[in-house]
Amino acid sequence: MVGVSDDRPPSPAPPAARESGGQPVLSLALASMMEEVHAHSGAVYLLGADPPLLEMAVMAGLPRAFAAPWERVALHAPIPVADAVRERRLVWVGDGEEMARRYPRVAVVLPYPFALVALPVATESTTYGAVFLTWPGTRPAELSDREREQLTAACARLALRLERATAASLPIQPEPDLLAAPVVGGVPGTLGSLEAVRMVGRLPYGLCSLDLHGRVGFANPAAAELMDIPVSRLLGTHLWTSVPWLNDPVYEDRYRAALLSQQTTSFVALRPPGDWLSFRLYPTRTGLSVRISRARGVSRPGPAEPVPDEAAPPRLVTISQVVSLTGALSEAVGVRDVVQLIADEIAPTVGSQGLIVLASRAGRLHVLGHRGYPDPFTAERFDGTPLTERIPSAQVLRTGVPAFFESWDQLERLYPARRGTHDGFAAWAFLPLIASGRTVGTCVLAYERPHSFTTEERAILTSLAGLVAQALDRALIYDAKHRLAHGLQEALLPHSLPELSGIEAAARYLPATRGMDIGGDFYDLVPARGGAAAVIGDVQGHNVTAAGLMGQVRTAVRAYTAVGQTPEEVVRSTNRLLIDLGTELFASALYLRLDPGRGRAVLARAGHPPPLLRRPDGRVGVLEVPGGPLLGIDPSAEYPRTEVALAPGSLLVLYTDGLVESPDVDFEDALADLAHRLSEAGDLALDELADHLVRHEADAGERLDDIALMLLRARD
C-alpha cells in the first residue's frame, strides 16, 4: 500500500463560500445530492474564467487523491465534467466498460467497477461549474428518470445560489472536503461494549479499521503480532507508514479498488524475511475493515522489501499521477505540447519552478522550450552551444547519465565554466531523455531553493524522464514531418500571383487542421494568349501523396495551356494524364480562360463546385457551368465549355469545397451564405475581401478539409 491520501489538514470554509446563515453552500448542496440518489462519492467544480478551467472546490466520500489527476480540468479535456459543461447536459457513464470506451484516460487511472454522472451547474445565461457523483458498480446500469430530475433540479438550485452570491459580490471559494472523521483511539468505547473488544482481542486472526485516508483507528493484538508492530505505533497512522513493507503500488491499487467499487478486495504481502500474510479489505462509506491472517501455499516471489525509514517523506508521485501523465503524453503531438505537459504535469508535482528542454542539432544544443525563467535569455543562451562544451546539459545529452546538483556551490565546483552565469535558481536536476536506447534530449528542472535529492526522488525523476523521452521522440519526428510537409506545400503552390493586364487577382490557402496540415487543394494563374488562364482544383486526400499529385496536375495544366489548348482540351488532357499515372486518387478542377479585352471568360469544369459571379451592380449569382466527372475516373469523359460575359468590374470567385462544406451545414445554405458575404463586401480591395471570406474558417479550431480561394476581378 502506498500513500494515496491527501494529508492536508482541513481548513475552515472561507466566509464567502457560506450563506448568510453560516452554512457552506457547496458542501451542503453536494451532501444533499448524494443523499437523494444514494451516491457513494462526489465533487463540485467551479469554473474559472482566465483561462477557462474547472477547479475542484469540494469533494465528498473519497480522499481527494483519488481524483488528483482531475483537480483542475481544461474545458477541452476528454473528461465527463468537462463534457457536461461544454455541452451543457447530463453525462451518464453506467459501468467500467462504458468508461473505458468513452473516457479511456479515466478508466486507465481508475480501472474499477463504478458508475458516474456529471452535470453542469448553470443558469440559462451563465455556467458556474459542474458536479459529478459516483456509485459502486453494483447499482443498475441506467440512471432513472426520477434520479435525473432530482439531480438536474439540485444543480439548478445550486446555480441560482451561486448567481445570487455573484450578484452580491460574494466570491465562491473552495470548502473543506466531506470525509468521515477518523476513528482514532484505543479505548474500549471505540468499538462499543468492553465485551465486544475482549471478544475481538481473543480472535486468532488480525483485525484493524482504516478511515478513508488509510489511517488506523483500531487494531487488535493479533493484527499487531502478525505485522510485528505494536498497537501504539499503528493507531492514528497510515498503515503503509507504520508498516514499511506494505509501501507498494500493488497494495495501493487494492485499497483504491475497495473504496471506489465498495466491493471486498484482497492481496497477499511478504513480511520479511519469509512470512506471507493475507489481507482482506471490507469497505463501507466511512472506511475499511481489514482482516489479516497467515497465507497458505504461497510460493511466488513477492515485492522487494523497501528500506525502512519511519521519517521518510510522502511518496513523490502516486501511481495515479504516473498513469495520468502517461495518458496525457500519449496525446501530445508536437514538441510544444510535450514541453507544456512537462511544465503543467511534472514540474509542479516534483516542486520544480524552472524548466528547460534541449535536444541536439548538428552537434550543438538546441533549446526546444523553457518555462519559469523571468528573463528568456537566461534559458535561450544555451541554444547553439557545442555538445563538446563542458556544461552539465551537454554532458548529460552526450553520456545519457543524469546529474543532480543540490546547490549553486556544488554546480560551480564541478563545472567552473558556469561561474558568472547564475540563472537565479539554487538546485538542478539534469535528466537525460532516452528513447529506444538513444538520448534524444535533456530535461533541466530548476529549484528556487537548495534541494536534497533522495535516492527515491532521483529514481522517480529518471523514470519520469523516460516517459517524457518517448513522447519527445515522437514529437520531434512529427515536427520534422510537419516542416517537410509545409516546405513541400509552399514549393508546389505559387508564391505570388502574376500582375496581368486587365485582371486583378488574390488567393488564399488554408490546410486542414487534421493530419500533417498539407493537402491536395491548388490554384494557379498564368498568362495566356489574349489574357490569362486560371485553374483551381482539389486532389483527394490530406497527405504528401495528395500534395505530390497536386503538383503534377498543376504542372500539366500549365503545359497544356502553354501549347494553346482550349479549356475543354486542357481538362480532357489532364484527365487522361491522371489515368495514365495509375494513381488511385481522384481530383476535381475548374479551368477558365479570361479575355478581359473582349469581356468574356470560357470555363470547363470537372466535378468541382460552381464559381460565383459578382456583377458590377453588386448582384451575386452562382454560374451554372455544365461539367464532367472527376478527373482520373473515365478516360473517355467529355468536359463541355461554357462562355460567360465578364464586364469590367465583374468579380469571379473560385473556391474548393472546404470553404462551403461541413458535416452540420447544408451545402446550399453555405453557398448562399458565401454569396451574401460576397454581395455585402464585394467592393473591398481584393486582399481584404479574400481575408474576409475565409476569416470564419481561419478562426475555427478545427478544419476537416483544405480550403483554396481565388478572386479574379476584371478591370475597367
UniProtKB/TrEMBL annotation:
Record keywords, A-Z: ATP-binding, Hydrolase, Kinase, Magnesium, Manganese, Metal-binding, Nucleotide-binding, Phosphoprotein, Protein phosphatase, Transferase
Region annotation Disordered: where it falls in the sequence: 1-22
Top-rank EC class of the record's enzyme: hydrolase
Gene3D superfamilies (alphabetical): 3.30.450.40, PAS domain, PPM-type phosphatase domain
Domain GAF stretches: 334-482
A GO molecular function held by the record: kinase activity
Domain PPM-type phosphatase: from-to ranges: 500-714
EC number(s) reported in the record: 3.1.3.16
Catalyses which reaction(s): O-phospho-L-seryl-[protein] + H2O = L-seryl-[protein] + phosphate
Function: Primarily acts as an independent SigF regulator that is sensitive to the osmosensory signal, mediating the cross talk of PknD with the SigF regulon. Possesses both phosphatase and kinase activities. The kinase domain functions as a classic anti-sigma factor-like kinase to phosphorylate the anti-anti-sigma factor domain at the canonical regulatory site, and the phosphatase domain antagonizes this activity.
Entry protein name: protein-serine/threonine phosphatase
Source organism (scientific name): Streptomyces pactum
Classification lineage: Bacteria, Bacillati, Actinomycetota, Actinomycetes, Kitasatosporales
